[in-house]
TrEMBL record:
Name of protein: PASTA domain-containing protein
GO cellular component: plasma membrane
SMART domains, per database record: PASTA (SM00740)
Every PASTA domain range: 672-734, 739-798
Single GO MF descriptor: penicillin binding
Keyword set, alphabetical order: Membrane, Transmembrane, Transmembrane helix
Coarse class of the protein's main subcellular location: membrane
Organism, scientific name: Eubacterium callanderi
Residue intervals passing through the bilayer: 16-37
Phylogenetic classification of the source organism: Bacteria, Bacillati, Bacillota, Clostridia, Eubacteriales
Compartments it resides in: Membrane
Similarity remark: Belongs to the transpeptidase family.
PANTHER family, per database record: PEPTIDOGLYCAN D,D-TRANSPEPTIDASE, PEPTIDOGLYCAN D,D-TRANSPEPTIDASE FTSI
GO biological process, one term: cell wall organization
Amino acid sequence: MRARKKKKKNLKQSRMYYAIVILAVAFLILVIKLMYLQIIDSTDQYSRQVDQLVEEVPLKASRGNIYDRNMRILVQDSSAAAIHVIPLEVKEPEKLAKGLSEKLNLDYQEVLDKVNKTEDDKVEVKNGVKKGDGEKVVAGIPEGVSFLDGTVYAVPDEIKDPDSAAQVLVSVLGMDYDDAHEVLTRKENSAVLIEGKVDNALAREIKEDQAIKNEKGETKSYNGIELIEDKRRYYTNGNFASYVLGFTGQDHTGLTGVESSYNDQLKGDDGIIYFQKDAQGNQIPSQTKIIKEPTQGKDLTLTIDSNIQMLAERGLKSAVEEWKAKSGTAIVMDTKTGEIIAMATQPDYNLNDPYAISDYYSSKHAGDLKDKSKADQLSEMWKNPAVSFIYEPGSTFKAVTASSALEEGVVTPDTKVYCSGSININGVTVNCTGSHGTQTVSEAIANSCNPGLVQIIQKLDPALFYQYVYNYGFGKQTGIELPGEEAGIINRPFDGNGEINLLDYATFSFGQGLATTPIQLLSALNCVVNNGYYMNPTIIGKGSSQQEYVNNQLNGPKQIISSDTSAEMRNIMKNVVAENSTLASLAEGYSIGGKTGTAEKFVDGAYNSTYYVTSFFCYAPVEDPRYSILLVLDEPDPSAFGGTSAAPTAINLMKQVLDYMGGQTDSDTQIQQNAITVPDLVGQEKDFAVKILEEKGIKYKLDVKGDGDTVISQSFPAQSVYDPNTELVLEIGSQSSENGNKVTVPDLNGMSIQSVNEIVTGLGLNLKVTGSGFAAEQSVAAGTAVDKGSEISVTFKP
């Protein structure tokens, strides 16, 4: 009896033991499964849950504004729309793709592909599937299908052959073919970007064109179109300072200019809207949205003065056209600080439409653009020649040679050199522009005498001279805050004995055999006249956040030559202007010194006597320079020289700068300090345009045409100087209206021929001039809308 009880007890204990073991194993399996789901597979699980239940819509942050040195706004954001399409909601894909491609000038097939985009996230095909069946499905559809925890998933965008894949699901899982095919080809249920930065009026027009209505005429849907608030960068004056400012891409990120180099400061932080959606992916209206507000970027202040920039661009464009040059660059620098007050290049491009290559640019750069793709052509156009154009400086470099020799004491301004019209170096003849005979070093520089400079450089130890060249900044980037800067080229050629090649060293004296950029050369020559102090060029104002003012270094700016040598060089270069009757006449009444430069271009391995680069450096006042200017013309007419092509424009610009900065009023070409520049408003929304005009204090009138609210034309062209006694007329309409090719004729009464020509041609009209003096009569009344290309006859009277 006792043994039987003991046996029962042991059996009971065994059963409990096995039960505990089974429970422990089950618990362990459960723990492992939970660990797998929560740790190993958590990311994928969470991703699927978020995608199924939460929709994210980005909120683009406004970029910071960009101002000139006088806090005049140059760049700001304007409201725009980003056109998205939700492919799952598209009912008529061909109609949608056709409308979008035509209205936005996009490729039809590319738009159609986006409209028909299939889902690229996992979607559930069927749950409760046995392991064996799941493995068969994966084996039968090797790409785009997975099996996990009894559920078959598919990524439609990865399915190569939906028809065959659907047959597998039918045969293995017993699904209906249509249901299987639908899930394997399911369209994307999230917004797909078609085009950003679209004008609001145009975006609304596109959306309305796609409206699908019911029998009662009520709108059922907009064929999958969704408009999301976007930002568009607005450049107040279009082409103004295009190479300095740069522009942004579709993602609102800076691509060129300071928009690129200071993108981190300007861009701000984007926000996000989160909202809950149902099983079909539709937003649940009753749910509260969670909004992470965007943070606007920081503002940026430049050293550019808008009025001087305008003067530089106008003067440079005239020089380029007069001398039929390929391009031109003009830079105005504050001699004492290195601040860039103006940096102009012609031809330029429109920052509000940076992907359009103008006919003017194409005609000037036909050789550079030939046989290149559109992308390469645009890349060529966006390069900033002021920092990227590499060329031989020619005679402007003679100031560097002379200052180095004077500083070392190997010559004085009165040291005699001789020019017979040429000089022989190692059996090679180096010619001069004339036979100057015996002359002083000062006279040799003023005469731009090559043999004279050769004799000067021969007195300098090559190693020592090259050190001066490096100290002046040649052969390295200046560090100006603009992208794409080149370093230039400094060669130190040696002969067969390992010695410096004397011929190459000799030609180095007059700027041949090295390559520089305009900003590099200006900085070096500025140092020559600035008591020998090299000032790092800067385009960013002192007040801009995150800007360390480059010249306020612990040890101060670097001094290359003494103030005495600098004073001697200033007097020498003063004679370059004073002893040239043409230049002296241009500079009459102003204390201006300078140096001309004319250099043959090195083309296909040899110097070409057809292609030149002409240039002129000037500074003023001579006794204590405040401003330095370098003007460069690339490939002007073969008859051009630095003194005939670049110098007159540079001297005239210097006079205007002195007048403007000094507050003088005796120059008929100057712009007053309180002048207002007319902004480029064509293509902007009415409300935004009005805001800009009110900010600038410009009187305006709206001429409304039709139902649109976009600026179709303006009565004064961008970058012209606003006359407070006039009224700017904005024509308001639809971008697609018939008025899109029309402009409103302004009131020209009392204006000079030059002003009338700028305004009329700026509006795309042709001007016919009769008489001289000031406008007294015009053939088309002010306020009349005419087609672009129409002729306007204006009679001028004294």
